[in-house]
Fructose-1,6-bisphosphatase class 1
Amino acid sequence: MCQLNNYNDFEMQERNTTLGEFIIENQKAFQYSTGELSRIINSIRLAAKVVNYKVNKAGLVDIVGAAGEQNIQGEDQQKLDVFANETFIQTLINREIVCGIASEENDDYITVAGADNSHNNKYVVLMDPLDGSSNIDVNVSVGTIFSVFRRITPMGTPVQMEDFLQPGVNQVAAGYVIYGTSTMLVYTTGHGVNGFTLNPAIGTFYLSHPNMQYKEDGTIYSINEGNYVHFPQGVKDYLKYCQKEEGDRPYTSRYIGSLVSDFHRNMIKGGIYIYPTSSKAPKGKLRLLYECNPMAFLAEQAGGKASDGFKRIMEIQPTELHQRVSFFCGSKNMVTKAEEFMENAEK
Ligand code: P6P
């Protein structure tokens, strides 16, 4: 007879590892395990809970809608964008763990001297504090994306632009928070990808998705087909391949318009997300440093793949803080197939 474990949800969660326990248990596996990297993750955990509270109240209090200003991208700043940006920045500064912060919402990076003005903290954090924020007032999931590097300029000196302009292969941690039907923190420190779900009743993240892995193949493609006429020929050819009646095709098109949500679903179900260059966006739309690099790190750690259609995202040498790049990311075989179409169209 099967043993019926009639635990309730809370009791079940009690048996799952909390994020705090996971960090302590894996401390030794963190690169340069001095505990500072753990403190960055803990800082993001706190800020995520604060932003989650506001995001989930957005419909009830006057925090939905544009803040009346524009960010460097020329996008209307939503009030929640501003709140999320300030929350993550302040939490990181208060924890005395970073020497610099770059954000989609800030034109330039922020130098963090530390309480003793020593510039002795060794990490920089780059982030998109609330990606997909145009979805906020229509109640669609949004997310925070973050990327962590060890500084490369001398300790004890103010952080420099080259500390931020590092190729993605140098990341020591990356992840996202998805504020959806449930709020999750998903991150990697280079030892696989793990997902933690927030129990809002007690404000604790529990390990709900250990060792997340992309399927090598999938049947979902995520792209804004409204831009079809502007796409490169290789993308058009790949889309026609996806839509052809053959084998496991036609695939299913699923596009939320929120990178974190589309990425999260594709990592669980198998799929590919594409935001290519186009005649409307000659360099692409997504930003290399705080959207594509962290998602590429996660994808590769989960057995997936991320490129600009031709070369590995994480090997691109950045030249500007807010530079844009074409982005193909997801199940390894799907990204490889899309790259074949891109390559053939170039011949
Ligand atoms: P479009 C949100 O602004 C974002 O950066 C991603 O989260 C999302 O996938 C994409 O842009 C949506 O862009 O042009 O399809 O509306």
Remarks:
- Residues 7 and 13 are 9 Å apart (CA to CA).
- Residues 131-132, 134, 224, 257-259, 262, 285-286 surround 6-O-phosphono-alpha-D-fructofuranose (CB under 6 Å).
- The first helix runs from residue 9 to 14.
